[in-house]
Structure formats: C-alpha cells, structure tokens
Amino acid sequence: xxxxxxxxxxxxxxxxxxxxxxxxxxxxxxxxxxxxxxxxxxxxxxxxxxxxxxxxxxxxxxxxxxxxxxxxxxxxxxxxxxxxxxxxxxxxxxxxxxxxxxxxxxxxxxxxxxxxxxxxxxxxxxxxxxxxxxxxxxxxxxxxxxxxxxxxxxxxxxxxxxxxxxxxxxxxxxxxxxxxxxxxxxxxxxx
Length: 191
Hints:
The protein has helices spanning about 15-40, 40-55, 60-105, 125-155, 160-185. The protein is an all-alpha fold.
C-alpha cells in the first residue's frame, strides 16, 4: 500500500521544521488579532464623534432609534473586542509554549520573545488587549451616560419613554459587565 520509509535516512530536523511552521502560523494569527484590536480605537473615536453630532439633530423617530441602536451596538463592540483579546492571549500562550518546546528540543534559548516577555500572563491579551478593552469600557460608560442624559431629556409623545429608557440603559450596562468580568477572569487552557 505504498513504499516503506527508510528509517536510516530519516531527517531528524523535520519535527523542528513542523513546529516552526506552526510557530509561524500562530504568529500570523497573533498579528491578525493584534491588528483587529488596534483598529478598535479609531472605531471608538468615530462612533463617539458621530453620536455626539448626529443624534441631537435627528428628527423625532430617528432620534429615538439612534438612542436605542447606539447602546445596543456597544454589546457587539465589547463582545467582539473581548473575543479578539482572548484569542490574542491564546496565540501568545501558544507561541510561548512552542518557544519552550523548541528550546527544550535544541537545549538552547533559540526562541525566547514570548516565553521571557516581562509582561506575559499579567493581562489577558497582553498590554494591547488590556488597553483596548479598558479604553472600550471607558468609552462605553461615557456613551451610555451621554445616551441616558439625552434619553431622559428628550421630549416625546410617549410619556413612558424617559423612565423606560433609564431601565434600558441599566440593562445594557448589565449586559456589558458580564463579558468584561469574564474577560478579566479568562485564563488560557492548553488544548
């Protein structure tokens, strides 16, 4: 069912080459996650600027829809950012494990950036993940506060809207706290 492999000519470097190929693939994944995290900051600034300028000048129903849609969209933004930070953490830990494995195979410190990095395992997703999630939490709090301020001050024919909007913002806040809490407790589990 095939030709037998000659064990006397087997290249012992193949396992290291396979590990290095995995190392490169995981590094590319880490670069992708890092880029996704870095793109969040300009997005945050754009949304804040757009919200501040657009919602107050929108006509009645559109203003109400904006006051509902913007806070709901924060749930998506926070959850996807946390997902990227956790995936970045997974990639960093996988890179660290590969470095340790290669160093053990070679009996030398050939690769050591992640495995000896001074800030490793201090925060989920490294400094970039931590800073991005922290900035997003601050932005979300500010945006929810501004939404609440605009929502309770809006004049509408719906007499119940102002008090119901306060409950809505409280529910959105609770929906944002859960993923942030889970992110802070997240720990990489090797598969």
